[in-house]
Design goal:
Layout: H1 4-24, H2 31-47, H3 53-69, H4 82-92, H5 98-113, H6 134-139
Helix pairs in contact: 1-2, 2-3
């Protein structure tokens, strides 16, 4: 089972990578601010569960100050021209939506299909205990 801590580690690695990419971007005049912001964000994901609340709060304040004092910036991008994007859109057409529509379709098929799959435990072997809240037990006799 995937635990939440695993997702935090993945996000910490991702944001750490973003910090490294931003630090190496020579075309960005605010690369130090970007790298510092994303680096602090990475620290909160990777070590936030182990740090005291005060330290986490100070990290967030440092992120806010980093982003607000000089702001974050973007480097020069090697973007395509408008005519190149239009040519690519004509070439791909509606096939461009296949990856975006495949994810919900597979999720729906898995959700509906795994309910009747032979690999699932039969319903008779699953025991669910219902527990009454103190409120229910106190007032259910009336």
């Amino acid at each position: 089972m995937i635990r939440l801590e695993f997702i935090y580690v993945l996000m910490g690695i991702l944001t750490g990578g973003i910090a490294i990419v931003n630090a190496r971007d020579g075309s960005n005049p605010r690369r130090v601010n970007n790298a510092l912001f994303w680096g602090l964000y990475s620290i909160t994901f990777l070590f936030g569960s182990y740090l005291p609340d005060l330290v986490n709060g100070l990290l967030v304040i440092a992120m806010v100050l980093t982003a607000s004092i000089r702001g974050l910036g973007q480097g020069a991008s090697d973007a395509t021209t408008v005519s190149e994007r239009q040519a690519s859109a004509r070439r791909w057409g509606n096939r461009l939506f296949i990856p975006a529509l495949t994810i919900p379709a597979v999720t729906l098929a898995g959700t509906l299909g795994l309910n009747t799959c032979l690999c699932m435990a039969p319903r008779s072997s699953i025991r669910v205990r219902s527990r009454r809240s103190p409120w229910q037990s106190r007032f259910s006799s009336r």
